[in-house]
Amino acid sequence: MKAEVKTITPEKARSLLEVNITNRPVSDRTVRSYTQMMREGKWILNGEGIKMCGGKLIDGQHRLHACVKSETPFQTLVVFVDDAKAFSTLDNGKKRTGADILGIEGYKNTTHLAASTAIVQKIYSGEMGDGSCGGISSSRILNQDIVDAVKGYGDQLIDSCRKAKQYDRKFRSKKSCVAGLHYVFSMTCEGAVEYADSFMDSLNLGVNLTPDCPILHLRNAIIKMRDQGPNSVGRMRLTNLFLVKGAIQTWNNWLLGKKTQVLRVNRDSKLPKIHSPLH
Question: For the chain, which domains are there?
Answer without folding.
Answer: 2-89 (3.90.1530), 98-255 (no CATH)
